[in-house]
Amino acid sequence: MKVKSSALFPLLRSDTQGQILAALVLSERGETASELARQVGTSLPTVTRELGRLVDAGLLVSELVGRRAVYRPNGAHPLAEATAEIALFTYGPEPVIARELATVPGIAQAMIFGSWAARRRGKPGPPPRDIDVLVVGGADLDDLYDAAERAEGVLKREVNITSLTPEQWANVDDGFVATVRERPWVDLQVDTRSEHDVGAGPGGH
C-alpha cells in the first residue's frame, strides 16, 4: 500500500513518522511500539515498520527492558536537536495542547481547526504560523488562556483559544460554527470533565 507523504513536514516519509517522533521527544521514559500505536492511533504493524525505519536512519535508538523494546530519540545523532524541534513544531500541537487542556475542568470537547488542521489532514499550503483551538464546554477562560500560554512555551508558536458553550456549538446556523464544521479539524484527546453531552459532529475529518 502506498503511504501518503507528510504535508506538514515533507522531509518525513509519512505523518505517522512525525507523530512518532513528536511523541518520543515529549516522552521522558521512552515508549514501546504498543504504547506508540495507541498514542498515534495507528496499527501496531505500521508503527513497528516506521520505528524500524527511524532506527535504521539513526534518529531513534531502542533497548530491551524486560521483554519489550523501548524507543527513544538518539541524542547522539548530528540532527537530533533539529529533528526534535521540527517534530514538535509540526506534530507537537496535538499531544502538547491536549496535555495542557487536560488540567482545565469543564471541557466537553476540544479540537484544532484552521490551517494547521488542514495541513494535518493533507491539504497543501504554507506552514501554519499559529494554532487555532476550539474548546466546547464550560471551562474558565482564564484557565484556558493559561493552558494555551504553557503550550506556546513548548511549541514556540501562538495558540489561539476559542471557547463555545455546547449550545453555541450545536447552532449550525452560526457562521463561525458552520465554517468550522465544514472544514478539516483534528480532535484532541482531552479527558471529558463536563456534564454536558456534546454531539461529535463530523470531527476529525
UniProtKB/TrEMBL annotation:
Signal peptide residue numbers: none
SUPFAM superfamilies registered for this protein in UniProt: Nucleotidyltransferase, Winged helix' DNA-binding domain
InterPro entries: ArsR-like_HTH, HTH_ArsR_DNA-bd_dom, NT_sf, WH-like_DNA-bd_sf, WH_DNA-bd_sf
Pfam families with a match to the protein in the record: HTH_20
Ranges of residues in domain HTH arsR-type: 1-93
Highest taxon of the lineage: Bacteria
GO molecular function: DNA-binding transcription factor activity
Name this polypeptide is given: MarR family protein
Source organism (scientific name): Microcella putealis
